[in-house]
Amino acid sequence: MNRKSNLTETAQLLRIVTLVVIVAALYFGKSVFIPLALAFLLSLLLAPLMTLLGKLRIPRIGAVLIIATGLCLLAFAFAWKLSMEVTDLTLQLPTYKATLEQKIHAVGALRGSNFSKVSDALGDLEKDLKPQNESTQQDRGKKPLPGASLQRPLAVEVVPESHTFAFLESAVESMGSAGLVVIFTIFVLIGREDLRNRFIHLSSGGRLHVMTQALDEATRRIQRYLLLQSMVNAIFGLVVGIGLYFIGIPEAWLWGLLAAILRFLPYIGAPASAAVPILLSLAVFPGWKHCFGTTAFFLALELVVANFVEPLLYGAQVGLSSLAILVAAVFWTLIWGFPGLILATPLTVSLVVMGRYVPSLSFLDTLLGDEPEISKSGLYYQRLLASDQAEARQVLEQYLETKHLDDLYTEVLIPALSLVEQDRHRNELDDATLAFIMQSTRELIEELGESAPVEATNRQLLGSDAESRIACIPARDEADEVVGMLLCQSLDRAGLVSQSIPTGPVAEMLSAVADLDPVVVCISALPPFAIEHTRTLYHKLRAKFPEINIIICLWQFAGDLEKTQRRLKTSNGHPVFFTLPEVLEHVKDKLLQPKAGSTSTVELDGAVLLADEERISDSV
């Protein structure tokens, strides 16, 4: 046991060390990894163009050169036009000097407001309370030491170095990174299939099918995300250009194009694209109307796009939770700076997809994916474990918004009670918690049953004298009884007549069955430890009531049906079912079989039920 524990701790430590090494490698090798990642991202974005040129029978190398040349020309043209506009604006600054001075004076006039006066008063008070220089007080009256100079020391001023060299170094580094991106992109586009095959061979570990699926899904998700993002940003830039044109901002089309490009930078791209138009509105127009209008225009547009358009388009394509997107943006920005902010979502999507297909990386899908890892049944059980009956009720109500009540019983409540049984048999539930869970579930079941409609046609078919035609008896404990209550409610809604027998000693439950005189008895048993008790109860029912039809309900049992029937030693065609829909279908098919004529004959394995028309009319 100790050896196994030591191996587990060693494996966990090895994973942590591996993770630290990977993060360190990404950080220190960012000068290579960033251009390479951007190249792969651009290759995915340009893949549709490559496919289109391939259909035109253009060789791959020629298609790559055409795309690369076109993109470089567009980039140079945009940079040249942007630099010309910036230069022109710089030359026109003297023209806007009067307008800017007027606004500065207007802002400065606010210093005469009451708020400014309060601020000045607080500043004066701080100066009055500030203690005088202690060294001056201590040195007052003291004579200088022999040999000391009476002159004041010369002040030393540190002159910072010129930033020209640093600027040139940064510019050269940026141009070098851009060149690497272009070169990597060209080679990735040329050898796309070869790189894909090498990656699959390297990472599959013999599982070619799984890794191929993972790579295809990651590629598809990232491609769709990039195409949708490009479409959204292009429309955003178009709307910005049109809006700024009608507001009157000079060169509105250029700022719209800049907004479309900057918006590829998450979170900070949109505010950055609004900065220049807002500053221009301050400089060009004499009043504040255009400035406020430009600011409100950008705010409204960004609110609509970020809160409505992007979640609607990106949600199904990305597969990430909102918190995961934010955390990924922070993480990759800390490691790689602004390029990491651009690459954050595609890289995280790739990690989530790998987590879905590689078992050892499944924690990535759990942490970052948008699919809830806890089922509705688990969530309901977890809320009851926390003694939160109100939120447990909300779980059921939310499920019923899109599903039927029988589906709720089958997919939520019965699996939740199965989890309760598993924890109870592992002695992980105390008596108070178990009692609260069972009592809360009973109350919720009763509330749900009261609001459900009943099929009156089936009730009329059976007749009003059928007071207790179906009895549900628990195999052993309270959980079996609660599931029996669910079955009775479903039978009642189907127009049948049923009654749940409470848990107790076997003799008392058999006596209750005799008092009810049912046609069918359903044994409700909830695994994992239900086979032995079910078999004992089944044989006692057969011995005491040989004419009664018995249905064995092993809820959510995952075993083999034939082996289970052999273990239970069933006979006389008594069926064994694992789900609620199977039981309901079987009982309704057997009990609801009307015959022609004045009487309705209902047969169930030799038991004949007569319900003549007079009794049916009386029941109505």
TrEMBL record:
It is found in: Cell membrane. It comes from the Bacteria. The keyword Transport applies. Keywords: Cell membrane, Membrane, Transmembrane, Transmembrane helix, Transport. It is a multi-pass membrane protein. Its main location: membrane. One of its GO terms (cellular component) is plasma membrane. It holds the Pfam family AI-2E_transport. The keyword Cell membrane applies. Signal peptide: none annotated. The chain crosses the membrane at residues 12-28, 34-54, 61-80, 174-191, 225-247, 253-279, 291-309, 321-354. This is AI-2E family transporter. The lineage of its organism: Bacteria, Pseudomonadati, Acidobacteriota, Terriglobia, Terriglobales.
